[in-house]
Fold each of these.
Amino acid sequence: MNQDRRDRLRDAALTVLAEAGGRGLTHRAVDTAAAVPPGTAKNYFPTRESLLRAAAERCLEQYRGVAAGLDGAGPGPTDRTALAALVAGLLREVAGPGRPRVLAYLELRTEAARRPWLAALLDPIGASDFAAYERLLRSAGLPAGPERARTLTLAVHGAIPHLLAGAPDTLAAAGLDDLEGFARGVLACACPERPEEDM
């Protein structure tokens, strides 16, 4: 099969997920989004499950590409201020240019709640974030370890659906109307400047 067309269909599946949600993911919708003749998506991915699998695999590839880009961007943040700026920048990217990619991922996660095979396929995306944030904490010279990395990672993950929904009262209540302030606050909780054990 034509790999370029296959990738085009997989990208179209992610576009459909981002724009129409899981219920909107049909072969016909993917054909339309990819601007290919009717029946093309079904030829490549005969069942809805194979279409979901293709979308999840593409999502994982995209995530690895973003992660590789961050890793290749040079040394990590060297202090608390730089790490807060990086976290705020990541959240800004999620709410801006990365929005379609992240919406598609969240739609796949919802489908994965009822499909263990899909959950297993997506698992590396969520699981790798914990180690990544632990590395960022160490790079910034902050106390690191699984508990602190979990606090930071889960706070960022929890913020993302609110950012994507964009409801102003919720954004204000969560502090997400000021991403730099939010990032500083999360770091203050995860790594207090004067840890309790030192007080």
Amino acid sequence: MEAPHHQAPANVLKITINSPEQMGELGRRLAKLLRPGDLVMLTGELGAGKTTLTRGLGEGLGVRGAVTSPTFVIARVHPPLGAGPALVHVDAYRLGGGLDEMEDLDLDVSLPESVVVVEWGEGKVEELTDDRLHVVIHRAVGDTTDEVRDVTLTGLGERWTDADLASLAA
């Protein structure tokens, strides 16, 4: 029997988002915490707000290009307009073999120098790095026209141990 993989303590923040505008704002705030090489995993059903969050993140990072869902291209690179990192927005839904396949995508960018946001990444990207921020977006139960979302951010690994996730709830 292999020893269980030691999981560093997680840094967790739960917040309630009431509108797409707030979701975008959460992305902009999150951008301030992110550094090159960071991996953000986004989990949520269709329409939960993953792309809205990523769009805000792109605005916060100051990258080029409108952030749209990368479903058909698997990965889209948004180069920085200034000195910051590029944003690599990945839809892992069609990636069978996880991020080994990412290397084959011939992205014109170095992942360690970029911020990588992965939608539908569970079970596919965890082995890439012990340090990752997992963002789970839950539509509040009930009325589907409701814009209310419960967002849980879990920072895993050394990188996130001291990260000020509380600043996102401002």
Amino acid sequence: MHADLSPVIAATAQWLNRAFPASGGALASALCEVQARQAVTVAAWLRYPTEMDVALVGIAGPGGSGRLDGITGAPASPDADEDAHAWRTWVDEVVASWAACLLADPELAGRAVAALADGVHTDGSPAEFRRLVAPDDTDRGAAALLRHPDLVAPVAELHRAQLADRLAPGRTLIG
């Protein structure tokens, strides 16, 4: 059993990076990856706010990328080597959808990060999500596809209502 959300975060961020790749070279790829990982981390922490939630997803698994692949037009089986794509089983559709929402709307991302302030994942220490909540021109250019509201809309719309409910005023993460 996984003690944390790192497999879900890594796989979901990788999925986002493959579905909406960086525009440019190596620096753009690195900046895009950081932004995806920050968005996925915030989304995962919102989705699984307690240690019990994390333990349950570790046991049951997050569901995989099947539906997301279909929405974005990715091939059902990228190649014959299934082991090379086993990471896709750790992709969480809801987390990917919420991360897409956060990437397309920095104001919403700021509200999401603020909602995490007293959660078990932050452990009282401030987490750094600057590239998510306050992207500069270089960040936006590197992740142009990943941050484009129209392009990520099919993924973002899957679970946007749940994210809005989670971030509603007066709502606690544990509830």
